[in-house]
User: Fold these one by one.
Assistant:
Number 1:
Amino acid sequence: MTSDAILSVAGLDVFYGASKILFGVDLEVGRGRTLALLGRNGAGKSTTLKAIAGVAPPRKGNVRLGTSNLAGSRPDAIARAGIGYVPEDRQVFPMHSVEDNLAIGAKLGPQGQDFWKLETVYETFPILARMKERRAGLLSGGEQQMLTIARTLMGNPEVLLLDEPSEGLAPIIVQAIADLIRKLRSMGVTIVLAEQNMHFCLGISEDAAVIDKGHIVYRDTIQGLKANTEVTKRYLAL
Amino acid sequence: MLEIDALATCLSTPACLVNQTTSGLIIGMLLFLVASGVTLIFGVLHVINFAHGSFYMLGAYFAFTVYQLTGNYFLAAAAGAVGAAIAGIVFERLIISRVYGQNVLMQLLVCYAFILIVDDAVKIVWGAEYLAMGIPAEFRLPPYRIAGGFVPPFYLFLVAMAVIIGLGSLYVVTKTRFGKIVRAAAHNASMVSALGIRVPIYFALLFALGCALAGVAGALAAPVRSLTPGMGLGILVESFIVTVIGGMGSIPGAFLAAIILGLTRSIGSVGFPLFVDGAMFMMMALVLIFRPTGLLGQGTLR
């Protein structure tokens, strides 16, 4: 997998003020693959994604997309380089319509990719097409989650970072989000999925990494992780 | 203090009514342009541009000089807007962006320093004495007579320009991609930036738009007001009153409040000449007591 990694993260250290949150985090994601980054609440999943996206700039380490090192760049430069970040708390623009939210995210990909535009997004997310005039602040939690994912896709990223997309949503909506991520995967989108819930990731991702107290403690396929009850008990059991 | 008789006479005389309304609209429209810049900048950047009057003054002086050089008022007005916009970008990038999100006293101090520097710079370049542009050649036409009152053609032009520019800025803010991005960034700049947008450039451009509005107001005021270093201060105070009454962040609110204030000034100068300023501040106080978000304000730019 090393040779065809599209995103590789090496030795990432992140501090919030004086406290160290990430300790030398290493991750590799193959092109077109989905990596589940699993861990308990506070283990460092969100911070890892934020560090990759430049929202929480790392103090040390590399973030390579293709050949360029993005660590230390501003979030907007990292987004233009092809990393699309979907935050866990959704952060739709509540006073803008659904369509305006999407329009704000619109840009070409780093190689001029233009697959994702309003038509393709509406085809993939029919629920957003029905609500395109509605103010984003009036959508349900699940609809807002769809909108944030779609808004980031509008920027034609090469890698999509999804931070706990199932958090706080009703089971039936969680199912819809899982179906959507599977659909994106089948379309060839490379995804890093931060999640607490391994079962949510089972049918979605191929690869898994487990993070605990800011250290990556385990790396395998998701099926391998599922079979390793010692690791799942120690790091993931609630 | 109250000149009830004079007020009643004027309100019942069409000619006087037309004259006072016209001059009220002139005051109101200049206030509207300046205040809509204040309100735009506050609505998006959450910073009160205490130096906004300086861009009004610069707009007037730029227009004065270009009119002297070319004799073309339209060119002069454009120069006022563009010159103020460029000065605004420099001020935003070099000075005010460094105090975004900081204590308002720090912002006030920085703006006040800028006001003093620009006032002195104007004294050095244009001199400390009053300058008068006079009504531009294009508008030296006999006044229109409406119901016995006199309405100079330039006044009509001024009001029309202010309305067109006001509608134009409303369109830019609500309908264009620029406006959508800027409003989203007002709400959540870090998310907009995570979508790949260079937020600081958008903020600088918005600041420039606000300053261009002040600059064009200065250029429109140049033919009807005298130019003097420090001329920005008076209109700054009044445009803050307009912004507070209309509602921070609301362009339609600024329009409504500016007309109310303009008419209060012009009709008040007949009816209660000693209490015109008092009446304006009283209105502001009443709005702050009974409707603190202003007549049409919602607290932030939406």
Number 2:
Amino acid sequence: MKKTRSKWSVIVAGIIVGLVAVVLGHFGNPGNMQLCIACFIRDTTGGLGLQTTGPQYIRPELIGIVLGAFIISLIKKEHAPKGGSSPFTRFILGMCVMVGALIFLGCPIRMILRIAGGDLNAAVGLIGFVGGILTGVIFLNKGFSLKRSYDQPSLEGVAFPVVNVLLLILLIAAPVFIFFSEKGPGSMHPAIWISLAAGLVVGAVAQRSRLCFVSGTRDAVMFKNFWMLLCYAAILVVVLVANLITGKFKLGFADQPIAHTEWLWNILGLYLVGFGSTLLGGCPMRQMILAGSGNSDSAVTVLGFVAGAAVSHNFGLASSAAGTTPNGRIAFVICVAVVFIIAICNTKKSSAAQGVAE
Amino acid sequence: MKITVDANGLSCPEPVLKLKKVINGAEEIELLVDSQVCVENCTRFAESKGFAVSVEGGRGQYVMTLKKA
């Protein structure tokens, strides 16, 4: 049995994900939003009519990511139906993470893609993201845990991929109750099959490489393991080079695609994303991969992202190119307080004896 | 003396944290985990601490044996 994987596999994964992002951007995804889990969940939420003020389009990339992870986990015999580790707490954390992401306007992968496009607002936001992860690490070191997950029936492990197949059918069939943006970011996308194929590749690669935009910083701090940071660097370099070649690189703060210049809120939004994701054990992309691999706790977390996206747009919390909103700033304070309460309530000073010889 | 650590059902990075708490001074550790990802993470950490790692089991049930090299 293979016990570890090589550094190169992580770097190659980063290169592939970077190339896929470049392809998606070339074929129509919005600027510096070639691939973004938070934005695409928001779009899908809109496509289903669960939010009515933001972009609306069922993003095939997400369906591909889930199905790619599902298929490869079956092939590699890693698909395992698991769940029961504080599911409702994870749902709430998922909501909070999405509120933070939509204040910043992007999840961690879009943060990297925005930096690769020269968007310095994202570079500033990175400070908050790392700060959030470090806050989460403090609680992990003090014994934070959402407790154990347990074996679940087979249906529990395949339900989420099946739902994604149904979403694909709805997208292709396009019945009247499914929404499609006619202008703005929701209207900008490649052909369905290109997005789906891209998602399948990313899903498979991310499942094999364990790609996670939180674990790199977390493990570097906690275990002096810097591997995953190489993956981020690979994505950044590939997309940066492509942007320089195609003339899309534009260094600065102002007039960046789908971004605002409120530096404090870019930091705070990503702080919430980093903190919440660390408590969840992985970034939004990782949650999608785990959900595809049979983890129903992650599937519930994704539903939390959907609920977060719905309230963010329906209640006017989400930022736009014009900046943050008063409701969004209040929601941030509430969400940070909620995440701290969850962190404190689930942290128990553990002794070395705990878990030993149980 | 062999120490047994049950990290079944715990998500990353908790299994590695449990291991970290007992690894100093230990000669042999039996670590129970339930995912290949945990096997990889714990193996990397144990090897960095000078332990030889062997793994038995598969699909949701792994028994890792860590011996001080």
Number 3:
Amino acid sequence: MIITGSRESPLLVYITALIALMLTLMPLPRSLGVLWPNLLVLVIIYWSMMMPRAGGILIGFLGGLAIDVFVGSQLGQHALALSLLCYLGIRLHLLVRAKPLFEQALFVLAALLIYEGVLWAIDGFSNQSTGTWTRWLHSFTGAAIWPLVAGLLGRLHSPR
Amino acid sequence: MAFAGGGLNSPSARDTAPGPRFFVFAVLSILLMYFDQRDGWSQRIRYVLQGAAYPVQVAVGSPRLLWNSTVDLFSTRATLRRENTELKARERELSLTAMRFAALEQENARLRGLANGLPPLVKRSQLADVVSADLSSQRQRLVIDQGDRAGLYRSQAIVDATGLVGQLVRVGPWSAEVMLISDPGHAVPVEILRNGVRTVAEGTGNEDEMRLSLLPATADVKAGDTLVTSGLGGVFPAGIPVGTVVEAVRDPDDILARVRVRPRASLARDRQVMALWFNPESPMAPVDSALVRELPEAPLARPVLEPPSPATKVTKP
């Protein structure tokens, strides 16, 4: 449970997720806000692949619930989408983490599109505004900065 | 479990079972969504979470506040003096208007056959600082630093010095969330001040623009018209400035006019807003605000799809 001691430390996962949540919620000008990646989702994908036992699906659920509260969407909407990504990350972690960063970024792109797709579907089912096409843009910027996120987070835990 | 048999991804016993756990969390999420739609006990969970979220919201909004106060710190004596003279001029102007307003109110009361003057519309007001702002194309919200503890309630009207800002959609213990009139999910019943034509102004997801999407092409509306709240819909009182018509386009092929409106309040730049409590005896007031509070789901302003019948008038005889 201590950052330096064990290989999978939940504390590290929760702290980085909290920081990522704050960066994600930062108020930004309109043009930048559309492109701003959801860093919390990226961080949670990373940890679910690198430390599948530290956060588990719980971190995805809690992180999604936090987004729901801050963004004001229905409780459970982001929680469901992010739990799904966590599940996929844990299921495929051995497959994906062996790949070079570029190929990982493609997996991440697919994951982010699934994430936004789930949100979009729930918006549609519950008769809410499904937004414009710009809501999908953050998936692409998210995948584009994946190498950066993976590099930064990789320094925080000892290499395998 | 059917998910658990992966050949490639089964290095240890614990890793092989994300399926059942995912199933549990998925069911939990769906239950939450289901109850959140129905407005039951999940409101209490919301309330607690809203309180827990407040510190993070303050932290997230702090760079903006820091920037604002830095700008304040460096404002020079000259700008302050200029601002002061401007404010004094404005104050003179306003006190003149207020004088006329008092006379008009007296006359209005006399015309209505009331012996004593009308009760004031606003019973109480509460200033609140904007803690953080979420101004995206899907959501236009502000978080303010007053909540349930200050007596704020859901679907309360929020204004700033210039006009209507929005209404409260969520109230936590120390904070509340304002849905701006420019939110794509928001619609406010308005009337054109010049001729009393009633319609609905919808948000577009852009804090500088709203739209009147239910006006027929033959409606009498032109650029420069001022819109005020009509008092219908039970959330806002009548007569609060909403915005100015920027452009009214009439396409001969289209039954409806395309009207763009610029909100009067500076929605994105507000640092302080005001929550209002209305006097239910005032003829301008929306339905009794205590009544709104007791409704399980407070009525958000929804587009009125047919012209209001005379019976739905808010004005009391």
